[in-house]
Write a structure and sequence with these properties.
Blueprint (H helix, E strand, L loop, with lengths): L3 E5 L3 H12 L3 E5 L3 H20 L5 H10 E4 L2 H5 L4 E4 L5 H14 L5 E4 L6 H5 L8 E5 L9 E6 L5 H13 L3 E6 L6 H17 L5 H12 L5 H8 L1 H15 L7 H8 L12 E2 L6 E2 L2
Parallel strand pairs: 1-2, 1-4, 2-3, 4-5, 5-6, 7-8
Antiparallel strand pairs: 6-7, 9-10
Helix pairs in contact: 1-2, 2-3, 8-10, 8-11
The structure holds nicotinamide-adenine-dinucleotide (NAD).
Length: about 290
């Protein structure tokens, strides 16, 4: 029975996963190596709670329960010792994930399940970083986690039926819909999203239109709720670039990252989280600065 969840990484995704976990009644410890990121995550979660109260989506009692269910920690070894489930949400970089899985494998109880929130990487490969591949799976949440209804659950080669069932029930307890699929790089959602987003950068690079025009065309012409540039600013341009690099390596040429995307990342324009991506969020007017 899952009671204690450890979320590793308190960035855009980790803090959202921690919030829906606490909302689902789990005791959630958020772990990050960066104290500043942890403080930031606490502030962001508080803002989700405040907005939830203002919009009457949650009651005062639920808000209190969520706050009481959340713990913040920098020591992963300590946090892992009492975990029933660890959900990894560190950057999409194999070496970083490998280090995290090694640490949790050495410190978590043998009954603990491991999930990765990777957008693109192989859960079988990630499971090979630890000694319990049958208890390891991908649990792919979407951004912003508290609003997006889906969790894409991806089984690795050795993931057991029991693990898939347990993780599906955890996602449901967190208020989410699920699809359970077999692994292939990029799964369903990231493959499509990476292609559309990359193509938009090629269009911008070719001078086809402004980001606003391209976003408007996709939203009103294709009925997407967000334009590709609005979405990549939310996802993080660095996260998107890492996804594309991985898909390019695994699936070939059609995923080669657009040079303009690489240039934005080099310039530190990472999206909403850095204050500036395709659009500028520093004055909150979200003007285009390209
Ligand atoms: P992020 O860069 O916003 O946050 C990552 C956090 O991990 C940072 O706070 C960093 O300090 C922390 N971290 C780094 N190394 C660590 C370690 N060894 N131990 C503990 N914490 C560590 O990243 P993100 O956008 O939240 O992405 C996390 C994962 O979720 C990635 O695998 C990404 O592909 C996936 N994902 C992202 C999105 C999205 O929209 N951003 C959507 C779905 C899945």
């Amino acid at each position: 029975m899952i009671k204690n969840i450890v979320v590793v990484g308190s960035g855009v995704m980790g803090r959202g996963i921690a919030y829906v976990g606490a909302l689902g009644g789990y005791a959630v410890t958020i772990v990050d190596i960066n104290q500043h990121a942890l403080a930031n995550a606490e502030g962001e979660i508080d803002s989700i709670i405040t907005k939830g109260l203002d919009r009457k989506k949650i009651t005062q009692k639920v808000a209190e329960e969520v706050r009481n269910h959340l713990y913040y920690e920098t020591d992963l070894k300590k946090a892992a010792k009492t975990a029933d489930l660890v959900i990894e949400a560190v950057p999409e970089v194999a070496d970083i994930k490998k280090e995290v899985f090694k640490t949790i494998d050495e410190n978590a109880p043998s009954t603990c399940y491991f999930a990765t929130n990777t957008s693109t990487m192989s859960p079988t490969e990630i499971a090979s970083y630890c000694q319990r591949p049958e208890r390891t799976i991908a649990m792919h949440f979407f951004n912003p986690v508290h609003k997006m209804p889906l969790v894409e659950i991806i089984r690795g080669l050795e993931t057991s039926d029991e693990t898939a069932e347990v993780i599906k029930n955890v996602a449901i307890q967190m208020g989410k819909e699920t699809v359970v699929i077999n692994e292939f790089p990029g799964f369903v959602t990231s493959r499509i999203s990476a292609l559309v987003g990359n193509e938009a950068f090629y269009m911008l690079q070719e001078g086809l239109g402004t980001p606003e025009e391209i976003d408007k065309a996709i939203k009103l012409g294709l009925n997407y709720p967000m334009g590709p540039f609005e979405l990549v600013d939310l996802v993080g341009l660095d996260a998107r670039l890492n996804n594309l690099k991985y898909l390019h390596e695994k699936l070939g040429e059609k995923y080669r990252p657009a040079p303009l995307l690489e240039q934005y990342v080099k310039a530190g324009r990472l999206g909403r989280k850095s204050g500036k991506g395709i659009y500028d969020y520093t004055d909150k007017k979200e003007q285009v600065k390209s």
